[in-house]
Amino acid sequence: MNTVQAGLLTAVTFGLLSALAALLVARPARSAVVGMGIAVCGAGAVVAGVAAMTGQVASFAAPDLLPLSGVVFAIDPLGGAFLAVTGGVAVVTGIYGIGYCRGGLDGRLVQCMLPLFVLAMMLVPAAAGVGTFLLCWELMALTSLLLVLAEHRRRPEVASAGRWYAVMTHLGLVAILIGLLVFAANATDATFAALRLAGQHLSPGLAALIFLVTLIGFASKAGIVPLHAWLPRAHPEAPSNVSALMSAAMVNLGVYGIVRVGFDLLGGGAAWWWLLVLALGALSAVYGILQAAIGTDLKRLLGHSTTENMGIVLVGVGAAGLFTASGDLTLAGLAMAAALLHIVNHAAFKTLLFQSAGSVVHATGRRDLDSLGGLRDGMPRTTAAFGIGALSASALPPGAAFVSEWLLLQALIHGLPAGVSATIVMPLAVAAVALTAGLAVATFVKAFGVGFLARPRSREAESAHESPPSMLAGMGLAAAACIGLALLPTLVLPTIGAVAGGVVGSGDPVTVTATTIALTDFAGSLSPLLLTVALVIGLVATLAAARALATRRAAREARLWDCGAGPLSARMEYTATSFAEPLQRVFDDVVQAEQDVDVTHHRESAYLVEAIEYHRRVPDRIERRLYEPVLAVMAVWGRVGRRLAPGSVHRYLGYGFYSLCALLILLVVTR
Amino acid sequence: MLSLWRKIRAVGRVAEPAPPAPIDPSSQPALHTTEVIQELHGSVQIRHVDAGSCNGCEVEIASAFGPVYDAERYGARLVASPRHADALLVTGAVTLNMAEPLRRTYQAVPGPKLVVAVGDCARNCGVFRNAYGVAGAVGDIVPVDLEISGCPPRPDAIVEALRRLTGR
Amino acid sequence: MNAPSVYGTVGVILQLLIVIGLSPLLIGLMRQIRARLEGRAGPGIGQPWRDLRKLMRKQRTSPRGTSEVFRVAPLLLVATCLVVAAVAPFVTTASALDPVADLFAVVALLTLGTVALALAGLDTGTAFGGMGASRETTIIALVEPTMLVAIFALSVPVGSTNLAAIVTSGLDDPAQVFSPVSLLAAVALIVVIIAETGRLPVDNPSTHLELTMVHEAMVLEYSGPDLAMVELASAMRLTVFLGLLANLFVPWGIATSGSVPVIAMGVLAFVVKVAVLGTALAVGEVFLAKLRLFRVPELLAGSFVLGLLAVAASFFLA
């Protein structure tokens, strides 16, 4: 038994045992037991995944386990990468969940679904047959749906979010199902190995059809515009450890599907496919971060940020596909490595951010940034954790995402000679990535500055207290991962580079020394560790110089400069809405916020105002333009359909008779 | 743009030559003030506070910092925040509403600091003495280091006082 | 990574000394030129150094309700400027820290400094601080695309975003300076620099009206040595940006070997180029009024189009 098999066996065993324990263990110990179980399960998955990335393979086939298709699993380096990421997120959220789920979320159903969700996410990258894949995919969808609905008794919005999520994930499943079944119909059987062989002989039209249909399903799961509407609804309403699992582990599987079907099973494909992927990625990135920059709900903001990061990943994947189609394999490997590294970085910082947000919600019960603030006094460790996550998310050095965006930009920049379409596409892609980087900076300065700094804007924020130790431990682990990825990406890059090279068929796209990342075949190098060390030395030197040169040591405590007028109340601080207002104005054509101003006049005079109420909503414009017509058509269809069921038994019997007749006629005619 | 350039060329230097440095022995400032001036050593950032003036002194201060008198050449500069300032230039008799803000502005200035009372209203309420809205002269609210008399004081008097502060 | 050579280390030390020592003089020079053009006498080039010396002797105030973010922000701002000054090719092309001398990394470091200041502005909890932070981050967000596309245009002929490589390629091919790519990218970068350093017409550094402030509004609470660090950092940022503009497009005079006269030439060339650019900026500011905040995106969009044209030119005319 090799490491991969051992790791997977541990993972599956502990996952199933935790699910069982959730049903049997009494409430006081339930969340602790399940949490530890998920952590061990995740650790097994990490071990298996890392071993798979370095080249060990494992497979498992049980043709009789499922009717019609059987069950077949096989782990290759690509699957191993996603398995490792899922496992890492599971470890951290498992530990976090011990404290978070206590009191309210430790019902039997929720605690049972958590390990099953993690297991399903682990088995999707391991699936090596259409039936197995779809089974694990649907299991993942069902368990996550039940988890999203965990708090439906407490808040009515949860039910609506669950409905959106259920419908969209199942529509995605149908799309993937159709695509993979059409594929399997043109192959000898439904295993991925057979599909791979058949993919080399498919007609371009059929291959394009399969790719597009599966792209719809996978892009929806990854939260790509225009099929993203479930993400900003489901992520805020789910419990925070579930949001972390979904955002940091589940959406990656959409990208996994696109890479698996596009690169592996269909063997690369035409350039226009990847141009489409790149365009969708760039559009999602800009749209997602724009919605995040303007939003004020902390968890919704993080959900939109997930759309943005998955968009950036798809820009990398699309660029890799474009370069493969034009023959530039080293560049393709570089772009794919950037995409994979960004998935890893995103998993680390998104987990950390959602956990801190969960910590805030746990302590204050509020998600709205406009009523938070001043949390650094009551929750210093959570503030530090969110700060580290925000630095990583905003793609600034010394954050984690800076390295992956640097790699992506290097890939895009060196890709200019790859054809005329590249000349137009690459600068626009660079501009899109740059705009998202700038807007991400604005978003996370807003989220961190308004939410955690300054003074509290509500009573709940004033009385915030720090989280229990298990939640802090989970956040600490995620923060350590973020810092490690930021300073020492050279530890993970060789492996990720090898996986990326394997996917596109090139050699290692990056060479690393202990501290520096260098591009193979191109001039360019970066050392995040050196940069951070230089920055720290600069900080210390400046501090020493300031201390030495300043003649008055003691800092006098003073009141804030408020123009001498009166005490500054918390209402006078800048809120998230006001912080984002210039951006909202600049992007008004896209955002089109709706405003309502309600003025109540004094009874005596219509010229005196007693109260003014101001409401501002930022609707999702894509939803409004795209979904509402579709929903309207569905509603019309539903009304038409109602006429088919008037309640008359005679009519229903008639339907049966007529359809039987039609079927017999059809059989006669087609004989 | 070209017309502006031609105007710049045509007008040339507007600032009048600097008068001799002020060393009037009869109005030596207090010891504390002299120490502060020596510490500041030629760079004085000034925050102007209107404590209730008729704006006559403001016009003269604007003139003093304008091109003709150019108080900036002696190292004085107007700033927006009292935290950035070394000296407060207070005009007007202090009204009831401005007494507390003036105190808070003074407290907001980091040490070492100076206060200059500009104009007769700031020195002794001028024509508004015993008016119903007046809390007192500037010296009643915050300690004053230097006074500039006049209603309103001429810009060269203001410049001379600023030169005492900067020592240039 | 090779061990830093003596020549590289000497270059780093010289660059740090020049940027720290001469950046307040650059601000003084710009103020003096503006004063003379406006018909005034001006306080002299050395006034900013007098201001800094006085500020170091002032008391530091710690406003009630602020935290470590407020206290650390000026240090971080100065530290990012120091790292960039040490790493970028101003006096010599050999950098002691070559893996950090990447154009993306340098630009991102400078943005990190601004972000620290914006967080400090939010930390005060005053409306001015929040307003300054909000406006500054909006401008950063809109300037990023132009900056990165201009870097793209610069890196295409060279094949790398390494600063030393771009400067060396400019030295090897002097005609590159007058190519459409360079000119378009230079104009785009000039607008970027004006936006990032907060000069007219994007922001007025000497305004007293809080509602027109962008950068100043974030630092209204700082006093004493903290204010000195913020002022010095702002001067160093301007020097660093102008130095990058000068050496990326007009690199002649920069030292490429380790002999003393060559390095002295490099120092002289750097000082002269930055002084000339500063003078041009100061003269330009006399003729410009500050743009309304909501007109600034139009200016930045225009510079973005120029950057895109530069990239297209670099491919089609390469």
What key attributes describe this structure?
heterotrimer; A: 671 residues; mainly alpha; 25 helices; 8 strands; 6% strand; C: 318 residues; globular
Tell me what the structure shows.
- The complex is a heterotrimer of chains A (about 675), B (about 170) and C (about 325).
- With about 675 residues, chain A is mostly helical.
- Chain A has helices at about 5-25, 25-55, 75-100, 110-125, 130-150, 155-185, 190-200, 205-220, 230-235, 240-265, 270-295, 300-325, 330-365, 375-380, 380-395, 400-415, 420-450, 460, 470-485, 495-505, 530-550, 575-585, 590, 620-640, 650-670, and strands at about 60, 70-75, 510, 515-520, 525, 555-560, 595-600, 610-615.
- Chain A has three domains: about 1-270, no CATH class; about 270-355 and about 365-445 and about 475-540 and about 580-585, no CATH class; about 620-670.
- In chain A, strand 1 and strand 2 (about 70-75) form a beta hairpin.
- In chain A, helix 13 crosses helix 20 (about 495-505).
- Chain B has a five-stranded parallel beta sheet with strand order 2-1-3-5-7. Chain B has a two-stranded antiparallel sheet with strand order 4-6.
- The longest helix of chain B is centred in the middle third of the chain and has 13 residues, at about 95-110.
- The termini of chain B are far apart.
- Chain C is mainly alpha-helical and about 325 residues long.
- Chain C has one domain.
- Chain C has ten helices and one strand, in the order H-H-E-H-H-H-H-H-H-H-H.
- Chain C has helices at about 5-35, 45-55, 70-85, 105-125, 125-155, 165-170, 180-195, 225-250, 260-285, 295-315, and one strand spanning about 60-65.
- In chain C, helix 5 (about 125-155) runs parallel beside helix 10 (about 295-315).
- Chain C is globular and about 55 Å long.
- At the A-C interface, helix 16, helix 17, strand 5, helix 21 and strand 6 of A face strand 1, helix 3, helix 4, helix 5 and helix 8 of C.
